[in-house]
From TrEMBL:
GO CC aspect terms: endoplasmic reticulum membrane
Membrane topology term: Peripheral membrane protein
Family statement: Belongs to the cytochrome P450 family.
Species this chain originates from: Photinus pyralis
Protein name (Swiss-Prot/TrEMBL): Cytochrome P450
Cellular location(s): Endoplasmic reticulum membrane; Microsome membrane
Sample GO molecular function, one term: iron ion binding
InterPro entries given in the database record: Cyt_P450, Cyt_P450_CS, Cyt_P450_E_grp-IV, Cyt_P450_sf, Insect_CytP450_Detox
Binding locations of heme: C122
Needed cofactors: heme
Alphabetized UniProt keyword annotations: Endoplasmic reticulum, Heme, Iron, Membrane, Metal-binding, Microsome, Monooxygenase, Oxidoreductase
Predominant place of localization: endoplasmic reticulum
Taxonomic classification: Eukaryota, Metazoa, Ecdysozoa, Arthropoda, Hexapoda
Task performed by this protein: May be involved in the metabolism of insect hormones and in the breakdown of synthetic insecticides.
Amino acid sequence: MHQYKTGYERAEVLAILSKHETITYDAIQEMPYLDMVIKEALRKYPTLPFLDRECTKTYTIPNTNVVIQKGIAVYISLTALQHDENYFPDPMVFNPERFSAENKSTIVPYTYMPFGEGYKNCLGNVL
């Protein structure tokens, strides 16, 4: 078991279920700590280890001489990205608080992408 505030998410679920009697979309919206736990689990253990895309136009990576030609496959390692200490301090520590309302704004855009990004992202993202 990970060393974090175990039991918070269970207590939260039980409290909401006593109010709603069943799990509904609205009930889940009232479980912020459970949401944080799920997001941290997806950060630490991504369901897809990488995203793949095709370069749609020739692109030079800024401040480099590296050119990606149109039609080339580009692979983004989510495992490496979401375990990078530059973006997630102590990346091997399971810490749901990374996704708290207070801390969410510190996450650099496009460094947490368990469902992908853009128009090809996973439909499950909204659940």
